[in-house]
Each structure stands twice: as structure tokens, then as C-alpha cells.
């Protein structure tokens, strides 16, 4: 009997297989924003990979594609914000999810917002809740960076409103 000192290759799911399986998981939709200290411009990104990490201390996590505009901005900006979108904010979610868009400035001009007191980042009016954060840690994970933030302030804006969800590749509403 021959035994090999080489471990057998581990099978990895392909991108289509992986995407199809995870599309079965409903996720809340958030708009992550930051003010770029380099040029003073505001940047925004739609995210479905945003979650609570810890209650003590209050920590959250957002997953950002490595080498994206938002990754670059969050590398430079110490603080950032997240607006948890309500079901009627589908248009804003779609606009900030577009690849290759020219300017976030134009998108923000059409999206009611205010500047966060603790982060200096834009908070979307009409969102279910807003969270302002300071980066605690960045972890490279495959082709993404997990940005862990300490929550500086969290506010519920619309306690009775319904969330915007992302499920099976499209935005959805709760029934």
C-alpha cells in the first residue's frame, strides 16, 4: 500500500454554484458612506454584507470588494456610516450598486441626506436606521476586505417601516 505525503486537493465550489446557493439567503440592504479625506468627496456603496459583530463593544462589519473605490476611501477615512434602507429606497440602492458609475456626487444630489455628526459621512433620510462607525480593523478575505467598525452612534429613524431586502438576485419587500 502506498501512502502519499501530499494532501489530496480540496474541492472548491465554482463561482456560479456559490452565487446560486447564497442567493437563497435573504439579506438586508444598506448604503455605506464615507467622506474621502484626500479630496473631500463623498462616496457611497450598496451593501448586502453588513452585520453585527459584537454588543460589548458595539462592533459591525461590512464586506467591501478589494481595490474598489469604497475600499480605497475606507482605507483613508477613519470614520464611515451605514444607512439601513427601507423598502421604498430601492432606487437609491440600485443607483449606488451600479458598476462604473461616473460620480457619487450626482447620486447624492438626488438622494435626501444629512451629514453624520460623529462620522462626517452622509446618512440617508428615510432609512430605517443609521449607524456611524470608526474603523477598528481591516481583514483581507479572498477578493474582499472585511471592515470592522466600532459603533459611535446608532439611531432608529423609522421604527415602523419595512426593510428593503435582497433575495435571489433582486430587491424584495416583506409580505
Description of the structure:
There is one protein chain. The protein has 175 residues and is α+β, with helices and mostly antiparallel strands. The chain is built from four helices and twelve strands, in the order αβββββαβααββββββ. The protein has helices at 15-22, 69-76, 90-97, 104-109; strands at 27-28, 30-35, 42-47, 50-54, 59-65, 79-84, 113-115, 122-124, 129-141, 144-156, 164-167, 170-173. The strands form three sheets. A seven-stranded antiparallel beta sheet has the order 3-2-6-9-10-5-4. The longest helix is centred in the first third of the chain and has 8 residues, at 15-22. The N and C termini lie far apart (61 Å). The mean pLDDT is 93.
